[in-house]
User: Which sequence fits this backbone?
């Protein structure tokens, strides 16, 4: 990994936006990527609740469109 983040405080909106793109390159389906985004968002919400970070950078990231 070239963009290693060690501290949760260092996670930015651009990190979270790049993650789905990396997953797409790896071949993940939109539903898989959305599940991962939900988990990231939940973790970062927890970090906000614990006052480790002030706001959740994943809030502004849109979910993938899932072809049904």
Assistant:
């Amino acid at each position: 990994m070239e963009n290693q983040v060690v501290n949760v405080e260092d996670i930015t909106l651009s990190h979270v936006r790049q993650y789905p793109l990396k997953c797409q390159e790896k071949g993940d389906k939109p539903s898989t990527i959305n599940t991962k985004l939900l988990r990231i968002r939940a973790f970062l919400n927890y970090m906000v609740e614990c006052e480790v970070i002030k706001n959740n950078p994943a809030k502004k990231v849109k979910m993938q469109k899932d072809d049904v």
The radius of gyration is 12 Å.
